[in-house]
Amino acid sequence: MDGSFASQHGRLIRKMENIAVLSEPEKAALAALPMRLKDFAEHTDLVHEGDAPQECCLILEGFICRYKLLGQGQRQIFSFHLPGEITDLQCLQLSVMDHSVGSLSAGRCAYIPHAALRDLIDRFPGIAVAFWRDTLIDAAIFREWLAGIGRRTAHQRIAHLICEVYTRLRSLDLIPDRVFDLPVTQAELGDALGLSTVHVNRVLQDLRRNGLITSKGRRLLIEDWPRLQEAGDFDPAYLHLRAREGR
Amino acid sequence: MDGSFASQHGRLIRKMENIAVLSEPEKAALAALPMRLKDFAEHTDLVHEGDAPQECCLILEGFICRYKLLGQGQRQIFSFHLPGEITDLQCLQLSVMDHSVGSLSAGRCAYIPHAALRDLIDRFPGIAVAFWRDTLIDAAIFREWLAGIGRRTAHQRIAHLICEVYTRLRSLDLIPDRVFDLPVTQAELGDALGLSTVHVNRVLQDLRRNGLITSKGRRLLIEDWPRLQEAGDFDPAYLHLRAREGR
DNA sequence: GACCCAGACTAACCCATGTTAGGCGTGAAT
DNA sequence: ATTCACGCCTAACATGGGTTAGTCTGGGTC
Fold first, then answer.
1. CA→C1' distance for B69 and C30 (Å)
2. In angstroms, rounded to a whole number, what is the distance separating the alpha carbons of residues B110 and B102?
3. Alpha-carbon distance A121 to A135, whole Å?
4. Is the CB of A76 under 7 A from strand C?
5. Strand C atom within 7 Å of B213 CB
6. Nearest Cα to B212, choosing from B166, B148, B147, B150?
7. Whole-model pTM?
8. Which nucleotide comes closest to B215 if you measure CA to C1'?
């Protein structure tokens, strides 16, 4: 991994390069963004439903989710977010948050003032397009989850989610081959997949029993990637990753 | 209803005014967009998964959905679209469609060349922002559906969907108070809500029995809007409609 | 080293929803 | 008129996954 990508701006640039081709001035402008760093503990809200934040939240370390609490106290998790991603770009254009952003693990984020981002997209239309693209990919992921929760079995959903997180982590150069940490409890997996904790547990054990994955604690090892993809009906097209040379 | 809004460009402008405040030059530019009109029959695909279209599709009349077919032949419908809406703005930035767009009823649409739209958003940043906003609202609706399919009961889901479509039709001035046509079979409702046709039928009958709605054919009459909202756990905040004066 | 707690895991039971299979009514096509 | 197709509706039965109510384990803390 290139050392420069370990910096806070580097992570962002690495992520943006998955989405669009960046010119040198564009990279320089991204690298010059003002950032207010903040560490967060696990299970903390970074943005609340109903807020109208004046900053966007870039993740540097840790595992984040977007979620909403429903009328009867149930929770639905909409997406997981990884280092390098901005969780709430949307509030540049939709001022009031219709959902919350919370941490699953401890970590660190950088708050970037809306004013700085607006200035950036005014000066660099290419970056505006990349941001728009990023929110469109978010939407594509929502659609895929919708298809999963609506029409896939619990086994397919869980296998699919593992495939997705693994693929995205790989695309950000954050993990080595086949092994990664999924700092998420089984209850949280259930909230993401529309399942009960008990059933998540049952299914995970099935996947292990069938030799698709192994796990110790939160460390997950993919034993059989082709069969896991097949079990999850996983096709990464919806992630719209730019094909990268030399992989 | 203002007569000019019945024209193809009028419908689009009416929709855009739900999303953003438009200046007169912006309205004029929208009104000057080139459009290729096309009538479509019911249950026809307007855009196919895997295509890389060179035009966007504006609906003028009829009821449209976005959907995807999954591995085992099941279908998931992601959203319904109403006259005035552009179904595939996203393909301006994500060239390959990761899902299909199909008609539920017969109707008419207008194809607008990407080149014309790109030129428009280059010249009018306000329109670019409005388009971005529109796709963000799409995403908000996906999230709400995700919450519904993941965590709400069949009764809540169906009531919620009726509330949503009704609210959106009203916001576009397309229907009078309390009555509207929902040109969707029960099987299609099931595909949208992650339910079987049989169960959709059961639940609809419950809603009628409990006096929340009545229906003759596809015409739906809302008998008790407050109770229907409550039954569907419906809060329209996620639609991000601009509050409009004089309603 | 005793205590606590969160989270993984288990077991028994149950229900919301799915599946299968068919009937009925209406409108379009022949 | 007859047929066909499609969509609404019903009934009987099956099951995936939910609910409840735990036990067990390992890591942190006093």
1. 35
2. 14
3. 14
4. no
5. no
6. B166
7. 0.95
8. D8
